[in-house]
Structures are given as structure tokens and as C-alpha cells.
Amino acid sequence: MKNKVLVLKILFLSLIDYLPVKAQISAPVEAFPLMNVRLLDSPFKHAEDLDIQYLLALEPNRLLAPYLREAGLTPKAESYPNWENTGLDGHIGGHYVSALSLMYAATGNQEIKARLDYMLSEWKRCQDSAGNGYIGGVPGSKALWEAISRGEIKASPFELNKKWVPLYNIHKVYAGLCDAWLYTGNEEAKEMLIKMTDWAIQLVSKLSDEQIQELLKSEHGGLNEVFANVAAITGDEKYLQLAHKFSHQFILQPLLNKEDKLTGMHANTQIPKIIGFKCIADIEGNQSWSEAARFFWDTVVNRRSVCFGGNSVQEHFNPVDDFSKVIESEQGPETCNTYNMLKLTKQLYLTSKDDKYIEYYERALYNHILSTENPRVGGFVYFTPVRPGHYRVYSQPQTSFWCCVGSGMENQAKYGEMIYAHTDKELYVNLFIPSRLNWTEMKTEVIQETTFPNEENIRLIINPEKRKTFILQLRYPQWVAAGAFQVIINGRNQNITAQPGEYVSIERKWKKGDVVEIKVPMQTTVEQLPDKSNYYSILHGPIVLAAKTDGPQQEGLFADDSRGGHIAKGPKVPLNNLPMIVSDSDKIASLVQPVPGKPMTFTLSNLYQANKNETMELVPFFCIYESRYIIYWQQATTKGFKDILQRTEQKELERIKSDAITVDKVTCGEQQPESDHFIQSENSSIGIIENVHWRQAKGWFSYRFKNVGNESLSSISIIFRDWDQNCKFEVWVNGVKLDDITQTSNTSGKESGSTLYSLPGELKQQKELTVKFVALPGYITPKIVEVRLLKPGN
Ligand SMILES: [Zn+2]
Q1: CA distance 248 to 215
Q2: Which of 55, 459, 512, 525 is most buried, judging by how many CB atoms fall within 10 Å of its CB?
Q3: How far apart are the C-alpha atoms of 205 and 149, rounded to whole Å?
Q4: How remote is the CA of residue 540 from the centroid of ligand 1, in Å?
């Protein structure tokens, strides 16, 4: 690689002006630096303001405590709780530095700048103290990394040498340093970033490629992206080689062959890897890797995403032909997934200028990202349930330290990044968000005014310093009908030949005060779940409409510091008690009528609940908070209604019965449920059969269950697969061996089913139970799919 070529290709990363050499080759289109775009009054600006408050509510010394501890320095405050002191120590500190960098670039807020400087100076102390370039809060960092560098590697998707995803954790530090350099030009951050990347080179210097691929079995964020960025920043080839080494072949190879093997995979583990592939591809001009990233995006967006742009259930990609679990679960799409999908979308747009990327970006921005911050008090959402009648949980600054808090703080700081884009002589207007753009190269200011989507008009005021000729490229969204898009310049209607999904080009010698008015008439449309089951969402333009619903109290609406605090664990409204649309599916849009005098408010009629006909009010989903809601309605024809209702009722009765006696449960082999139950294991493995995750062991594994309500307990139930003659094992609870009720553990020939273990008297009142599955010597446990802690039923 020629350094010069590499630096030239920096362009693709859309970095800021601080970079050493301004790129010379032309990419299809460039993003504006975030610092050149200021938001004006809108829900986005409001979200940004609340994010500033959230950022300032966090105490830097508490976030820094894990880093100081690992660097051998004395922490100045106690670590934060939740994920910050149970294994993922320090991950939020990394996101915090990214979020502060973005926020400072987006607003110029000096308090935010002071926080950023402080965080970086403390990180610098940690790096200097460690002496080898490392900065990190991973518990037991020194011993862990020494073992890894010697080739002692035990990796599973969410563990590395028995630590909770340490590579994922340190990726946040890398990303923080990189963002501090790219968005605010902090030289010290750049130096620290390079030093820490040199540390990574050292870390793997004695490992073979196979050993590094083994490491990468464990979640590692976008380490390949960050190393590629360092290569671009420094122009040094060795960092690009490192980025290659950290590219997970297991994920890459099927994508190169255009194969979708994503079902069952942990979604947010994969998306950042693809961002890295694309980044490397852009630096090298590698067409096939770029195609792999595009294929991944197409697959996720067109086959695996719901109407608001999110994907996956319980953090994992569901089968493309079966979204039933997405409908049933309280753990719908995770915010981090969409955060990362938007990063990938930005890369793909900038290297293609294809409007389809903006369509998705816009859809996900209004309907997922904006909706994941509580507009009353701030706070972020982890899961957005698709389940009708359910609700979301909000983080609180002093209790909640989940991944989606980290990505959430960043999300709300970068609404300005894709509103506009440009080339040397063109200005692209992509999103209809009130803002002020400073186009420095053209010495032109552009002000965008609108209350979109409440109105369908957008005003652009163009203020060049002196008269300037350039081409205004106005996005003609696909959600505007052919022929309906209008452009009026200084009161004069323009003739438009472009079609939806294209840009309307206007070349002109612009003068100060020129006014461009755009009209984007919206239509109401209906979108079915991707698996074509009978669930429909309703959109007006790009905006997903939803209805508020009643139901039992929203338990845990504001999360406490418990490990499962991010999950909306309150009662689920039975699906058969929620209104169903009774209509042919092609008539649904006609059942939606605007409410006069109330913008973006509609009624949906022909809803039946049992035999009662009713009408619901629809508003944008992003306007609904602290409430149960519906975004997907079940649909039936008049003829099919009764049958569907009966089937739904039957299924729900079974669920309710089982939920009623469940005190706690863990889905085995899935990252978050296992981590939340403090999984420990020895000689144990995980996998998937028929989209069901499992765990088994030749050694043992254990979970810690909580009896939060101090219930009187009765038993432990397990669901298993492949219980054959090789399986002999014991179940221990708090050191007491249990006997099963339905069979003894050495019975052979039982393939799949469930087994109950009754708890002896002394364990029935325990508040905490560690349940351990131990294989007998020379044998193995069956594949265990689910473990529940039960209380007696009626
Ligand atoms: Zn997350």
C-alpha cells in the first residue's frame, strides 16, 4: 500500500478538515463535518438538548474508576453499578467520550468540551501509568491480555477467557479516541489512539491468523473498522494489516458468496464487523468486500427489518420467514442494532449516492432512533417491543449502564450528520430537519425551516457570501407520489422531470436570500411484516403511526440498577384482548382518516375486539412515550376473524399459565439472558438447532436466579434437546443435589422435552439460587434450551 494513496482515500471516511492532507480523488458524495450543521427548533433539537443534560448528569470520575483501577491508580470515586461493575466495566466511558465528541461538534457546548478534555486527560494518565499503550476497564486486564498474548485463548460469543466480551469493551475506548480526534481534532486523542493500536499489534504479534480468528469468536465491536481508521489517519500500512487480521472470516466468507446465514446470530455482534469490512474496502478499493457489505445491508433492511427500521428479537436475527417471536416477545429490536445499521447506511450512501440508503436512514431515524429517547425526562430505550400492547423501559443516569445507553448518548448527538451532503459543486438536501448549514468551501450558509412531518412544506434560505454558482440537489423521496413533488424558487414554480427516488437538480447562480420552497405531499400506506403473516403497520409518508393502549401498570418503566432492568418485564396484554383490523388487507389504508385540525393525527376504524367495533387514534410512534402502544395490528377478513381470535386466545392462555408460575427464567445460549444470570461454565459449548439456542457441557455450567418477590418456590424446570445415552448429569442448587420428578438423569433415548426438579424445603424460601448443571465424568449434559425457576400453580 502506498501511504499517499491511503491518505487520499480518507475521503471515504468523511473526516474533518484537521486531517493531514485534503483528499484529491472524488467520491460520489461527501458528508459535511458535524460541526458545520446546527439543529434548529424541532423534536430532534429537543432530543439533543435532553442528551446534553444526560451527559452532564453522569459523573466522569465514576465512569473513569475502572480505568484507573486497571492502570494501578487510585480511583477518585466508586464505579457505577449495573453493567459497569459486573464485568463490562468501562464500556460506557468509551461511549461517553464518543458522545461528548459528537455533542461538542454538533453544538459547540463548552461544558461538554470541558468534560471531554477531562476524560481524555484521565485516560492519558491511565495510558502513561500502564506504560504499554493500553487503556481499559476490563476487570483483571493485565493478566487477561498477558494470557491472550501467550496464545491462551478460550473464546465463545460473549466470553473471552471467562471475561464478559473484553474485546467489545475496549473497542469503545478505541472508538472514543477515534471520535475525539475525528470530530474535535484533539491531537492528544490521536496520539493515544495510535499508541493503543500499537499495543494491539503487540498483543497479537505472536499469534497465528488462526488464533486471532479464534479470538474473534468473541464479540469485538468494530475493532477492524477502528484499525482501518488508524491506517487512514496515519497512512501506515501496518494498521491496515491489523484491520485485516481482525476481520472475522466466519462472517465475511458467506457474505462474499452472497449467502444469508444470519438466522440465529447475535445481531449487534455482526453489524459492526460489516462496517469494518466496508471501511477496509473503501481504503483499498476492494470491490468484493464492498459488495459483501452491500449484500448484508440489503438482507437486513429488506428481509429482516420491521417498519421502524429495527431488526432482531431477543438480540438475535430471527428466521426471515417467521416473525412470530418478534410479535410475541417483550424484547424487540435493540437500539444498538439500528445505531450500527445507520453507520453502515452512511458509508454505503457516501460511496454510491443511492437514495435507497437515505430512505432507510430517514425511516430508522424518525421511527426508531428518535423514539428511543424519552422526550419528557431524557433516558434511553434498549428494546422496542413489536408486541402489540407492550411498552418500553427508560434508562436513568445513575442506575443504567447498558450498551444501548452508550449508543443512545451518541445517537442523540448526531442528527446533523446526514441532513446534507456535497461534492465540489453540488449541495444535496437529504433530510427535512430544521437546521443551519455552514458550507465553508462555498462560503454559503443554508437555513432549512419546516415543521415536517406536521407540515408538508420545507423552506431553504440560501445565503452565499457573494453570488455563487452551484447545483442544488433536492431529494425526491420515494414516499411522495410521482408528479406530486414541487419546487418553488423565489415564488416561481419549477418544472420537474425527476421521479421519486431521484434528485431534482437546480443549477443556478445563487444570491443571498434566495428562497427555495419544497412541497412533499405524504400518503398513507400499509406495510406487512416481512414474513407476510397477518400483521400490518401503517405509515404516513416515512412516519410510522401508532396507537396508545391501556393495560396493567408498566412495571420497571424507569430502570433500576438490576441486571435485567432494561427489559419491560411487566404483564403482557393478551393479544386476543387487543383490537384486530377486520378488513381485506388491501383496504386497510382506506380505514385511516385524518383528524381535522390536528396534524399527523388520524383515526383507524374497523377494529374489532371480541365483537365490539371500535376506532383508535393514530399519531407518530416517536410521539408516544411512557405508554403501552400498538405499531402492528393483526388483520383478519370478516370470515377468518373468529378462527384467528380463537387461535390467538388458545396460545395466549398457555403463555399466561406458564408466565403465572415463573419467578425467573433464562434462555440458554443467548448472550444477554445468560450474562444477566451471571453464567459461569467449564468445558461448555453453545449452539443453535432449528433456530433454538442451547447450551451443553462436558464439564458444568451455572446460572444465578433471583427470587425478587420473595415467592415461596416449588421447582426448577428445564427444556432440553438431544438427551441420549451419552447424557448423564446432575442438577445442583446452592450446593444441594436435586432429583428430577419425571425421570432420572441416566434415562436414555429421550430426545426433546421438559423435566421438572422439585426444590427441597430449605431452598423454597431462598432469595438467590445458583443452579448448576454438572456432567458426570465421561458424559455430557443434554442441550439445555431454557431453565425456569417456578412457584406452585393453582
Ligand atoms: Zn444495545
Answers
A1: 9
A2: 55
A3: 8
A4: 28
Radius of gyration of the chain (CA): 27
Q: State the Cα–Cα distance between residues 37 and 419, nearest whole angstrom.
A: 9
Q: Which residue has the cell 453489524?
A: 271
Query: Exposed e or buried b for every residue in 697-730, given b needs 16+ CB within 10 A?
Result: bbebbbbbbbbeeebebbbbbbbbbbbeeebbbb
Q: How far apart are alpha carbons 695 and 785 in whole angstroms?
A: 7
SS3 for 729? Answer: strand
User: What is the rounded distance in angstroms from the CA atom of residue 607 to the CA atom of residue 616?
Assistant: 8
**Apex 115 CA angle, 110 and 119, nearest 5:** 145
Please name every residue paired with 789 in a beta bridge, in sequence order, or none if there are none: 664, 716
Q: CA–CA distance from 136 to each of 102, 165, 216 (Å)?
A: 21, 13, 18
Are residues 384 and 393 in contact, defined by beta-carbon separation less than 8 angstroms? no
Contacts of 238 (CB under 8 A, 6+ apart): 201, 231
Task: Write phi, then psi, for 469 (nearest 5 degrees).
Answer: -100, 125
* HEC string for 578-622: CCEEECCHHHHHHHEEECCCCCCCEEEEEEEECCEEEEEEEEEHH
Cα 270 from Cα 682, distance rounded (Å) = 26
Cis peptide before 620 (omega within 30 of 0): no
The SS3 of residue 365 is: helix
CA 670 – ligand 1 centroid, Å? 14
Task: Report the separation in Å between the CA atom of 172 and the middle of ligand 1, taken as the mean of its atom positions.
Answer: 13
Helix (H) or strand (E) holding 438: strand 435-439
Give the Cα separation of 238 and 33 in Å (integer): 27
CA of 643 to the centre of ligand 1 (A): 38
C-alpha of residue 339 to centroid of ligand 1, in Å? 9
- pLDDT averages per 10-residue partition of the chain, 794 residues: 41 40 56 97 98 98 98 98 97 98 98 98 98 98 98 94 97 98 97 98 98 98 98 96 98 98 96 98 96 98 98 96 96 98 98 96 98 98 98 98 98 98 97 98 98 98 98 98 96 96 97 98 98 98 97 96 94 93 94 97 88 87 98 94 91 90 93 90 89 92 93 92 89 90 49 86 92 95 94 82
State how far the Cα of 555 lies from the Cα of 391, in Å rounded to an integer. 9
Q: What is the 313 CA–ligand 1 centroid distance (Å)?
A: 12
User: Grid coordinates standing for 664?
Assistant: 425467573
Tell me the whole-structure pTM to 2 decimals.
0.92
Distance from Cα 383 to the centre of ligand 1, integer Å: 8
Distance of CA 68 to the CA centre of its chain: 29
Separation between Cα atoms, residue 681 and residue 683, nearest integer Å = 7
What's the CA-to-centroid distance between 658 and ligand 1, angstroms? 28
Query: Cell numbers 387514534 correspond to what residue?
Result: 617
Distance 337 CA to ligand 1 centre (A): 7
Report phi then psi at 32, rounded to 5. -85, 145
Helix (H, G, I), strand (E, B) or coil at 754: strand
